Amino acid sequence: MWGHYANNHKGVCLGFDLPIRRGESIAYADKIRYIDKLRPISERDLADTKYKDQLVNFARMTKSNHWSYEEEWRYWFSLSQTEKELKLTKPNEVFFANFDANLVLREVIFGARSTHTTESFKTLLRETDDVKFTTARPSFRRFAMVTQQLASLNK
């Protein structure tokens, strides 16, 4: 995923503690399902409001088997009323969740080519935050990313 999402190993990956089970108005994470073949959606399917809602849920939780190596989870939460109103006037607006009890930063993994450093990230954290810092690099023996063991190359 480093090549796809982290600007060819120049980015960072953030690891969070977050709720897995759904609760009353609590954000939650769902594991993505990977399938061999997606079925086409017809205009008739989209005309049925109840069925369309089911399709949206299916679409947001499903990807092609070609992406199964990602082992993706998606975190879902609701926009506030203010954010919903803003979204109507600015449909391309992007919203970010604040870190809180339901979204706790636990790990920062630097890409092998990242210019970010542990020290620069620590300036953004509180002293009480318990965050692990590591650097990823391509494996020498297989098609995989592994933890950088050479201390001088850690970010």
How is this fold's topology laid out?
Blueprint: H1 2-5, E1 12-17, E2 28-31, E3 33-35, H2 43-47, H3 49-61, E4 62-64, E5 73-76, H4 81-89, E6 104-110, H5 118-122, E7 132-138, E8 145-147
Parallel strand pairs: 3-4, 6-7
Antiparallel strand pairs: 1-6, 2-5, 7-8
Tell me what you see in this structure.
By secondary structure, the protein is α/β, with parallel strands linked by helices. Helices cover 23% and strands 24% of the residues. It is globular. The mean pLDDT is 83. It has a four-stranded mixed beta sheet with strand order 1-6-7-8, with no helix packed on it. Strands 2-5 form a two-stranded antiparallel ribbon. The protein is built from five helices and eight strands. It has a domain of 71 residues.
Q: What features would you highlight for this structure?
A:
5 helices; 4-stranded mixed β-sheet; alpha/beta; two-stranded antiparallel sheet; 8 strands; 24% strand; 155 residues
